[in-house]
């Protein structure tokens, strides 16, 4: 038996939209902007809405039905992204940027990637003991891998609530959006997303904002948040208090479970990549930070759309987990076994008898000789004469016997029979004498 251990990583493929020049200088200035100043640019505690930037949509009454297109802007420009659409109504028609009568939103990929150890045993007997195959045992590990990504594109419908390419979420933090979905494979053990907004359209903007929301349902050891921005020289603002006390209560109807603050041990920048080290964090904790980029002159990003990504790594604290812990796969999750390349002998059906051999063809018997008719006729004549002779003899005896009376003693010989014989001899003698007498008299 051969054993091979493989470490598996799930890979999510997305169309890469990230671009932008990298500069040598960097700014990590949580002191340069207060959370209140940054939050004042957003109009809703739930998410940043399109009201955060000057509205360029027409009044609903001026929208002509002839202007409604058959295919949305998102479908034309993001072919590799799954989407959901819903008809507009009077309350949201201003968000229909492309005037197609639909609000089309990205259907983000689940950014939670459970890690798996895979052990392959080759040529081992299967459960029935009759076959052999490769036994593949998959066991989940406690490695943390959460991912989020979004694109800034003001041409999307309701763009600041749209453009999410990857996100980690579950009904604890997105109950309204997920109340009808029972597929736990679409969820993760917390929330990680990159919210985004800017102060103008793609063709004319002077500031872009990326807000990272991170919450976990379970404790993580050595937790690290890495944010990959499309540029460096950004300012940062810690908005954890807003996330815990305003955002999650708003989206959960004041039923938020995220009440513990994540406090970074240290922060650092390497060009456009920010690293935030938390150390060990407890379950039901949350964190928020805004990364802002201000440009000296208005920028045209219509052909250079910006993307920001976030990733959380670390180790799940497995002693606080069970096999029934929701929205998570860990070392406490039951392993799975699958069989590959099975080889089984072909069974013999006992009910099917062997086919008997074909019997030999018997030899053709010899043709009998033609009987001799003349000889047979002679035989019949001889037998007939014998039968007649016997019949005469029997009649003669019967005649003699009928003339005899009495019997001899117990010897069984009849007196009449003896007398008949003597009489026959006498008669024969007289007959012979008579014949001789006639013969000589003729002479």
TrEMBL record:
Residues 62-72, 79-92 have a biased composition (Polar residues). Keywords: Cell wall, Membrane, Peptidoglycan-anchor, Secreted, Signal, Transmembrane, Transmembrane helix. Residues 408-443 form the Gram-positive cocci surface proteins LPxTG domain. Residues 37-99, 162-182, 346-377 are annotated as: Disordered. The keyword Metal-binding does not apply. The chain crosses the membrane at residues 417-436. It comes from the Bacteria. InterPro entries: LPXTG_anchor. This is LPXTG-motif cell wall anchor domain protein. The keyword Transmembrane applies. It comes from Enterococcus italicus (strain DSM 15952 / CCUG 50447 / LMG 22039 / TP 1.5). PROSITE patterns: GRAM_POS_ANCHORING. Residues 1-29 form the signal peptide.
